[in-house]
Amino acid sequence: MSAEQADWLVSAELAPDAADPRLAPFYAAAARGALELPRCAGCGLALELEQRVCDGCGGCEVRWAEAERAGIVHASTSVHRREAALIRTDAPYPVLDVELSSGHRLVMTTVERSDRDVEIGTPVQIGFRSIGGVTVPAAFLPEAPPPTLEVHQ
Amino acid sequence: MSAAGAIVGLGMTPMATRPIADDTVSLACRALTAALDDAGLARADVDGLLVNSSQGIRPDRLGVALGRQAGLGTLRLLEHLEIKGATAVAMIQRAILSIRAGLATTVACVFSDAPVAGSGAGSSYAHSGGVAGVRGLERASGVLGSVPTYALLASRYFAVRGGGPKDLCAVAVAARAWAMGNPDAVVRKPLDEAGYFASRMISTPLRLLDCARPVNGSVAVIVSAHPAPSNAPSLRVRGMGAVHPVRRRRGPGESWFGGGRQAVDDALAAAGIGRDEIDVLELYDPFSVVTLCLLEEYGFCEPGSVGEFVRSGAIAPGGDLPTNTGGGQLSGFYLQGMTPLAEAIIQLRGGGADRQVAGADTALVTGIGGRIDHHACLVLQRDGSS
After folding, report:
1. For residue A75, which residues of chain B lie inside 8 Å, CB to CB?
2. Is the complex ipTM more than 0.90?
3. N or C: which end of chain A has fewer CB within 10 A?
4. Contact assessment for residue A38 and residue A59, using Cβ atoms and an 8 Å cutoff
5. Contacts of B142 in chain A (CB under 8 A)
6. A117 inside 8 A of chain B by CB
7. How near does any CA of chain A get to the CA of B201, in Å?
8. Distance (Å, rounded) from C-alpha B289 to C-alpha B302?
9. How many C-beta atoms lie closer than 10 Å to residue B31's C-beta?
10. How would CATH label the architecture of B6-118+214-224?
11. From the CB of residue B250, how many other CB atoms can be counted at a distance below 10 Å?
12. Which of B140, B147, B251 sits opposite A81 (nearest CB)?
């Protein structure tokens, strides 16, 4: 951890509380490179990160299950306002609401520095960023599309 | 008069857009004093106090200690309510129900906030929210303050329902046109489409002029079983409603909008009136996109037609549905649910001066909280009107 590289987007002050019992399994999995998300242990329904009781079957046991690291962009913004003490990049940055193939929706930015406007529906792969030693999911965008070419038939 | 309860007093501080010496408690005391003066009541007449504080961890946030701090005596009703931005409207509902149940006679409802500090309100909001829970995870992803969240909502809303920046512009321009007639509005410079599109981008598609104008200030409202000794007009609460829709953060449903209509349907049904009998509509509008969502969600225009509706001028001065007639939170001032509530009171009393809507007897006031997760609304009517 001594040679911890700074995150491209936010200062270490914004490192999440990985010990927060609500999300501790999530951060523990992320630290080993796995995306684990909560499901109902009874019926398997995808639950929200802070949800304790299944709204489908009423089951009270939450199972943190590894999810496929893929999804599509459900909502998207490019943030232009940059709070000086907290944001490290000098260009607009993406914030994406990603619908994972597991069904869960998760807000994240990109793994690498980007100032692209990302369209809803864009497929993404999920990787990770590290902020002050805490690992969080982030999106790998597909290669930027090539410039539009004339189509000759 | 009615043991039904009515709004009989309104007190407002000046709305400060720069840091001031007063903390939230001092501001609340000033607004409360002004509201009692407006109604012609003394502190000893108050037997109920409801308090609405801003979210967050401000050391000076209001609490039930306000009763002592504001020099009130022994109370029968004293509560700190918390359903985020819907709280101001919920306080009026709570006051009315308490009066009708005989648990209080004269209830003061108070909100104050002071987010504008040395580095500006945007900076205050960017630094608040903490690092725990889902909010901590989102902040680590660059979701600072509430603009990026509502920008995500806007992107999704436009993708699903159609529309775009010109609709946001129409809302912002209408709000400014109303603010021009409101001496309490913090922005009163004329605004046209070019001016809107020249304003700086905050988080696509939301520009600076799509965002609320935070102030340091306070509003207090007095609800009583008795008419105001000052002869201030009594405003009856004809209908009330609330709904707290759960939109799950998973596919395939919508996570970002929808589900608020029941609150309005219930309030109108209780009042026995239709949407066409609403003279002024006062919405909680922290971002222009919220006005679009709510107009459609609350059933004031056909689904999918809200862009056309606002671009036609329907919500602007002279339009068929005068909406956010003091400039709302976009150009008036952002004091959470007190913004729409105070404006409805002013309009129904006929005190709107240059922005007064002629013949405004009936208002619908709505508050929202969270990410449009909580809705509360009131149908208010001037006493003596039918």
Report:
1. 152-153, 155-156, 159, 256
2. yes
3. C
4. no
5. 9-10, 79, 87, 93, 95, 109
6. yes
7. 6
8. 16
9. 27
10. 3-Layer(aba) Sandwich (3.40)
11. 20
12. B147
In terms of Cα–Cα distance, which of B148, B336, B365, B151 is closest to B264?
Answer: B365
Please tell me if residue B92 touches chain A, with a CB cutoff of 8 Å: no
Domain range list for chain B: 6-118+214-224
The number of angstroms, rounded, from the C-alpha of B253 to the middle of its chain's C-alpha atoms is 28
Give the tens place of pLDDT for each residue, B28-52.
Answer: 999 999 999 999 999 999 999 999 9
Torsion of the alpha carbons at B260, B264, B266 and B268, rounded to the nearest 10: -170
Q: How far apart are CA B113 and CA B58, in angstroms?
A: 10
Task: Using CA coordinates, name the residue in chain B closest to A73.
Answer: B156
- Write out pLDDT tens, residues B234-278: 999 999 999 999 999 999 999 999 999 999 999 999 999 999 999
Cβ atoms of B23 and B61 closer than 8 Å = no
* Structure tokens belonging to residue A8: 């491209």
Residues 6 or more apart from B110 whose CB is under 8 A from it?
B28, B31, B32, B49, B50, B51, B52, B62, B66, B218, B219, B220, B221
